[in-house]
Amino acid sequence: MNQDWQVGIFGTFDVANYGDLLFPIIAQAELTRRLGAVTLHRFSYHGKSAPQWPYDVTSLSQLPEIAGQLDAVLIGGGFIVRFDKLVATDYYPPTPSIHHPTGYWLTPALIALQQSIPLIWNAPGMHCNGVPEWATPLLRLALEESPHVKVRDAPSQATLAQLSDAARVEVLPDTAFGLSRLIDAQSPSAAFLDALATAGLTRPYVVVQSIWGLESFLQLWRTHAGIFEDYQLLLLPIGPVLGDHESVLGDDLARACSLPFWPEPLLLAELIAHSEAVVGHSYHLAISAIAFGVPVFSSADLNTGKYTALPVYERIFQLRRDQAIDPQWFRSNLGRQPCSRAASQAVVQLDEHWDRVAELIREGRRATQPAVNRFWQDLPNRLEDLHDQAQRHATAREQSQRDVAALQQQVASLERQEQLHQQERQHWQELQQRESERQQEQLQELLQQHQASAARIDELLGELQRGTDINGQLRQSLDLSERTCRELLDEQQRGATFTEQLRQALAVAERRLNQLQDSNSFKLTAPLRSVRRGLKKLLGSPTHD
User: Fold this and answer.
1) Which of 71, 191, 241, 504 falls between 20 and 30 A from 526, CA-CA?
2) CA–CA separation, 310 vs 304, rounded Å?
3) Cα–Cα distance between 519 and 123 in angstroms, integer?
């Protein structure tokens, strides 16, 4: 009679997130292929039931009653090795007795060890987070007593491996790389064909994750839609629980289609497998595309955390929000191609993983109770140490509170002094203000007086200037009169000289005339002068004596 194996798998299978929902489906298929009949108990915080959910989920509140019936415990996959409280919006345990968030991964691992159940780490991961001090001994025990510890990326391995030298922590590709074992891309399913018809997809299409942060791609499509005339867009939410929704991409994308329902995980995987490319941030959107040779245009930082595991698989391209996309480059990289060598090798590694998981399940219970018992023996010491540490912290806290109270009193005293100083400063400022206003008024009066004086000075200067101008004119007139007087005096002097010369000449002429008249010749020529005067009269000529 074939055995019906009872296997528990633990993670966040109760949230609407594509990657988380894949893990139980893949585990069921791979274990059934190797073990035959397998009843897979999917444990998460909250119970779910088909057909409203892709499968039944058992609430972790039932784990204490069911744990003893399990033949194996699988932890993960997904980003579940974490200690922060913000896993998803309003996502908390169903009861306060279940720790959050270790209640869906670390606590089940410890319960498995207590029950001697094979504990298998099914490639879970971390993402840029560490391990708090209080959890270190618990996680160390879980790692050291597990026969198969696989995590999905090197950063997770590095963080966990440093907790223990005895634990063997190894990297395994995410189990979603094995989707090609579950979906035959050469034979589309009826559900897939119905989805194409419902969405109105009649051409090759690109899957676009319905999230914020794809501005560079949206700008490419809006600006160069004509270059991609032969392509359509399929807008798909990958993680509705994380806020994915078609509306965030807008309603102005040419040839964009969407579905009126959120596809169940394998249908969503098949839609990805038949696309010409995927655009988005999701880790498992990228892995699903890589598994079928579909190019990935990722808005995630491929150099950080879990995403560092992806570039080795090739044809995964980094999109940046602040960097425009070359339309010809984008188009040249569209289209499915044979899977990369790394992707094919990942499938081989996963086959080996599932073979080992099946082998461990067949081997049955393990001798983990002694280690757990020793832990229980040491637990009072640890609790006592924690209590002592808490007491020291409490004492230190009380002292700190007293110090704070004293400081607060000092601060209050300083504040009062400051207030008094402020009042004094304000009083002096008011006095200074009034004195300043008084001085300002005086200065204003002096300024007005100065302005009046300046105006009077300007007026006097004007009058002085006019007087100066008149003095200049008078001086010029005086100079002219002086020159005229000198010229007149010179002229008078010349006239007196001429008169004296004329008088002297007349005197000489008179003496000469008297001498002539007294001469004998004058007397002898008297008759001739008479005849001459007569002739001149006859001739009409003037006569002169």
Assistant:
1) 504
2) 11
3) 176
Cα–Cα dist 523/503, whole Å? 27
Each residue of 484-516: b (16+ CB within 10 Å) or e?
eeeeeeeeeeeeeeeeeeeeeeeeeeeeeeeee
The token pair that represents 490 in the structure block: 């010179």
Domains 5-172+346-367 and 180-336 share a fold: yes
Q: What is the pTM of this model?
A: 0.73
Phi-psi region of 300 (alpha: psi -120 to 50; beta: other; left: phi over 0): beta
More confident call, 491 vs 310: 310
Residue boundaries of the structural domains of the chain: 5-172+346-367, 180-336, 371-524
Terminal-residue alpha carbon distance, the chain:
197
Of the candidates 120, 129, 54, 48, the one whose C-alpha atom is nearest the C-alpha of residue 85 is 129
Smallest CA-to-CA distance from 79 within 350, 357, 305, 356 is with: 305
Of residues 142, 151, 175, the one with CA closest to residue 31? 175
- Cβ neighbourhood burial of 480 (10 Å; 0-12, 13-18, 19+): exposed
pLDDT (tens digit per residue) in 439-467: 888 878 877 887 887 788 778 778 877 87
Overall residue count recorded for the chain in this entry: 545
* Nearest of 105, 25, 118, 9 to residue 359 by alpha carbon: 118
The architecture of the domain spanning 180-336 is 3-Layer(aba) Sandwich (3.40)
